Task: inverse folding
């Protein structure tokens, strides 16, 4: 296709080339940002090898194959996901730095001092996946059911421990279980799931409350035992393991979710492009089986609907945190 341009004055060569480039971009329907030469940094505020890191790498790989952009995963764990989250809140809002995180982004501001606002510091892009959590113990543990663990906690107040990420849904669910069962167990905070699972394997903690994906490999290898599903439904991969609700504590639910965010004031067209890439990737036939193995339920809710979901969850988490007087150190 030929592009003819007439100018009222003699333009410089650079100006003429720039004008033609603008016309070409507009006619082709693509912005310069969407070209494959652009590198996008995906910040994951958790440790490498964890559930969030694995999800980010799966989706980045799929998006790279399907659409071409280079996506670099940057794991920035620390302070219960606060360090990485704050870094993205401060980033230039050009769509080149984005955040893939969990529900901790909405719980942390209600538990500790942070330098971001869960509702105004970010542009919600997509609710990517929901994932169910479990309570697990070392396979050498004498506890074979949740009732066994609860009864032991009653006879040894404060002596049993449960590991989880501080400020996470796991900590909130743990406090809910303590209240519902009227027991005293000690919460041991870890920055993410890999070190917590390693601590359980080494019998340094009594139990963990993390996503099924975090313990699945070790459970399948017979090194860990899942006592209960911390969700309202059983997990397909563990049809014989009851939920906490079925064990008598119906209000305890540790389902978590993973979402994608950009800094506030990111241009709308760039947010839409990211939403399209990630929502397509999470539902793609190449990725769905791999997500199933990891225990992820693909969602792909984007834009305003995801924003409304965040506001609803923020209010729910805040109400529970205040009712149970949950604190972090």
Result:
């Amino acid at each position: 296709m030929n592009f003819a341009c007439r100018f009222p004055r003699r333009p410089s060569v650079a100006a003429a080339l720039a004008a033609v480039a603008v016309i070409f971009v507009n006619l082709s329907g693509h912005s310069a940002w969407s070209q494959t030469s652009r590198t996008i940094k995906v910040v994951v505020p958790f440790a490498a090898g964890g559930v969030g890191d694995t999800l980010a790498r799966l989706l980045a790989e799929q998006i790279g194959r399907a659409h071409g952009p280079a996506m670099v995963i940057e794991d920035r764990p620390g302070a219960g996901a606060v360090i990485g989250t704050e870094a993205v809140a401060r980033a230039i809002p050009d769509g080149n730095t984005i955040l893939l995180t969990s529900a901790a982004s909405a719980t942390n501001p209600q538990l500790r001092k942070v330098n971001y606002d869960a509702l105004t510091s970010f542009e919600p892009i997509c609710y990517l996946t929901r994932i169910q959590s479990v309570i697990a113990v070392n396979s050498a543990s004498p506890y074979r059911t949740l009732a066994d663990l609860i009864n032991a906690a009653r006879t040894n107040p404060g002596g049993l421990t449960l590991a989880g990420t501080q400020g996470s849904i796991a900590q909130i669910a743990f406090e809910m279980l303590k209240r519902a069962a009227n027991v005293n167990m000690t919460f041991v905070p870890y920055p993410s799931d890999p070190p917590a699972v390693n601590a359980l394997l080494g019998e340094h903690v009594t139990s963990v409350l993390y996503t099924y994906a975090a313990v699945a490999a070790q459970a399948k290898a017979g090194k860990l035992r899942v006592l209960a599903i911390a969700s309202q439904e059983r997990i397909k991969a563990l049809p014989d393991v009851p939920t906490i609700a079925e064990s008598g504590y119906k209000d305890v639910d540790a389902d978590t979710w993973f979402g994608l965010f950009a800094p506030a004031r990111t241009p709308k067209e760039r947010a839409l492009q990211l939403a399209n890439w990630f929502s397509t990737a999470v539902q793609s036939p190449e990725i769905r089986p791999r997500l199933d193995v990891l225990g992820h339920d693909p969602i792909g809710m984007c834009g305003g609907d995801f924003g409304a979901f965040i506001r609803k969850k923020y209010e729910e988490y805040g109400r529970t945190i205040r009712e149970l007087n949950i604190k972090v150190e």
